[in-house]
Amino acid sequence: MTSSSDLEQIETRTLSLVRDFSFLHADDAVANSCRPIADAVARQAVTSSEGGKRLRALLTLDAFRAFAPREVLERDMDAVLDLACAIEVFQTGALVHDDIIDDSDLRRGKPSAHRALSMDTHSDAIGNGLGIMLGDMLATASVDIADKAASRLGSGTAVVSAFLNMHREVEIGQVLDLAVELNSLDNPAELAAASLNVFRWKTASYTTIAPLEFGMLAAGDDAGTARDCALAIGLPLGLAFQLADDLLDVIGSSRNTGKPIGGDIREGKRTVLLADAIDAADEKERRELISMWESSSRNEEQVARAIELFESTGAIERSKERITELWSESRKAIESLNLPRQRKDMLVEACARFVPIVRG
Amino acid sequence: MTSSSDLEQIETRTLSLVRDFSFLHADDAVANSCRPIADAVARQAVTSSEGGKRLRALLTLDAFRAFAPREVLERDMDAVLDLACAIEVFQTGALVHDDIIDDSDLRRGKPSAHRALSMDTHSDAIGNGLGIMLGDMLATASVDIADKAASRLGSGTAVVSAFLNMHREVEIGQVLDLAVELNSLDNPAELAAASLNVFRWKTASYTTIAPLEFGMLAAGDDAGTARDCALAIGLPLGLAFQLADDLLDVIGSSRNTGKPIGGDIREGKRTVLLADAIDAADEKERRELISMWESSSRNEEQVARAIELFESTGAIERSKERITELWSESRKAIESLNLPRQRKDMLVEACARFVPIVRG
C-alpha cells in the first residue's frame, strides 16, 4: 500500500484540475468590471476542494491496481489518477449544493461555499446564486475531467457513461434524502428501510460502487462485469460506511474528527439509529423520541438524552451488528473474485478504510 | 425548410428523453415511502421541459443540414435530433436553477419548478432543495443524451467535449450576470460593455454558438474549424438575439409573447438599454434613472417613465442599430462560407429566426 503518497498525488492533482477548469482561460474574454466576482468563484472552487479524506479516489486507484493486468497498470496509471480525482471534484460540487439545501454554515471547518460567497458579495441572495453556480461548475468539471481521462485510457469507452450514471444516482439520492424528512416516525421499520435505501443512492453510489466500477473499467473489464462486481463489493461496503459515519456522530471517535458529538441529532436527521431506537423503545421512550424529533430544534440536554436512549434501547449495538454483517458480505464478494491472493488482500485492505469502526 | 415538422419531432423526442432519464428505471430499487417524491420530481422534469420555442434545437438541425455531405445527412439525422434535444434539456435545467437564483414564481406561464415542488411538499426549504436537484438531474441528463448521441455519430469524438464547454460557458455567464448586478450605474459605457459580455457567455454560448458548432461537428468538420465558424456566425447572432429579447420586453411584440411589458424594468435588470439610456440622458434624467434602479422596486408609473426615457434618449433606436449591425456581421460570416448558394440561403433563413425584430 502506498496510500500516503497516493494521497499527496490526489490532493495535488485534484487542486490543479479544479484550478485549470474554474479559473478563466487565456482566451476567455470577460469584462473587467465582472472579473473580480468570477475570480472569487474560482478561488472558492479551490478552497472548497481542499482537504477531503480522498477515500473515493484512493479506492479507485487501489481497485485499478487490484484488477489491471501489469502492462495496463503501467500504461494508464496517470489517466486513472485523473479519473480518481474526477470523483473528488464531483463530490465537492455535490457538497456545495448540499450545504445550500441544508443551509449549513460550515464545511470541513471553513465557511461553506455559499456563505463565503455571501460574505464576499455582501448579499445572501447573490452568494446563494453563486453557490448554486459553483456547484454546477464543479459538476461540469468532474465530467470533463473524466471524459479527458477516458480518452487517454486503453479501454475507456464505458467510463463517461458510468460517470454520468454515478451523477444520476447521487442526484436521486439527494431527492430521496429530502423525501425521508417527510416520512412518518410512527413506522420505524419503514424508516430504517428508507434510510438504508437513501444510503444506497446518496452514499454507496459514489463512495464505493463507482470507484470500484471505474477502477475495473480502466483495468479493461467489460461494463456488465464491472457493474455487477462493483455492486457486490461496494453496495454493502457503502452502507456500512454511512452507518459507521452516523454512529461516529453519536459515540465519537478515537481520532478527533473535529465535529461535536450529536450533530445529526441536533439537526433532527432521520437516521437508521433513530429508527432502530424507536423500534426497540418502550411506549414512553418511543413517544419521547418522536416528540423530540417532531419539534423544530433540540437542546443539549435533549441531545444527551437521545444518545442515552440510542444506547439503552440497543440501537447503537444494532448499528454495530449491521456494520459487521455488511462488511462481512463485502469481504465475501472480494473472496469470490478470480484474483491472486495478494491482490484480494490488497483490495480488502483498501475497502477496510471505509469501516474504521470494525477494525479498532 | 421543414421547421414545423422539426418542431414536432423535437418536442416529442425531448419529452421522451427526459422521461427516460428522470423517472426511476425498472432496476432502480427505491423505498416505497420515498417513491412519491421521486415521482413528483420526475413529473416536474417533464412539465418544466414542455413548450419551449426550441430555437436552439432547430438551429442544430439546420446547421447539420447546411454543412453535412449527403450520405452523412441520411445516416446521422436521428442521432443529431437527439443531440439537438440535449441542448433543450440543458436549457431547461439551467432555467430551473435560474428561477431559484432569481426567486421567480413563473416560467412559461406555469409555476416555476421549485415553486411547484414547494407546493407539492408544503415546504419551501424542501421545494427549493428538490429544485436544485432537478436542475442537477437535467444537467446530467443533457450530457448523457449528448454522449449517447455522439456514440451513434460517424464523427462524434469532439461532441461531448464541446457540450461540456457549453455547460462551462453558461455557468460562467450566470456568474457574470450576478456580478453585473454589483456594477456601478455611474459608468454606463462600462455597464453596456459588461452587459454585452454577459450576453456572450450566458446567451450566445448555448443559443447560437453551440448549435452551429454541434451541427458542424456532426457534419464531420474538425473541432477547430467548427469552433471558429460557429463563433463567427453565432457570436454576433446570439448578441443580437438577446438585445432583441430585451427590446421586446420594452416595446412589446406583434406576436403576443404572454409577458407583460416592462418586466425587466420592474425587476431592475441592468440591461444594455438602461446603459445606453443613462449614457445619452441629460444630467437630470440620468439621476432619475439611477435613482429608480437603485431603489428596491419600481412601480407601474416608474416603469412607464423608464420606457419613455428609453425612447426619448434614443436608447431604443440605439439597440435597433446594434441588432442590425450584429445581424449584418453574422450574415457576412455565412456569405464567406465555402457552401453552395442554396445551403447558405437555408442557413441565413435558420439564423433569421433569432432576430425577428429586423425582419418585420
Largest interface: A-B, 61 and 61 residues
Number of domains of chain A: 2
Structural Rg of chain A: 21 Å
Q: How many β-strand runs of chain A?
A: 2
Report mean pLDDT of chain A, rounded to a whole number: 93
> Helix proportion of residues of chain A, in percent?
over 70%
Strand order of the largest sheet of chain A: 1-2
Question: CATH first level of the largest domain in chain A: which class?
Answer: Mainly Alpha
> What series of H and E elements makes up the topology of chain A?
HHHHEEHHHHHHHHHHHH
CATH architecture assignment of the largest domain in chain A: Orthogonal Bundle
- Output the CATH homologous superfamily of the largest domain in chain A: Farnesyl Diphosphate Synthase
Q: What characteristic shape of chain A results from the CA principal axes?
A: flat
- CATH topology of the largest domain in chain A, which one? Farnesyl Diphosphate Synthase
Distance N terminus to C terminus of chain A? 19 Å
SS summary, helix count of chain A: 16
Largest β sheet strand count, sense and barrel closure of chain A: 2 strands, antiparallel
User: Which structural class should the secondary elements of chain A be placed in?
Assistant: mainly alpha
Portion in strands of chain A: under 5%
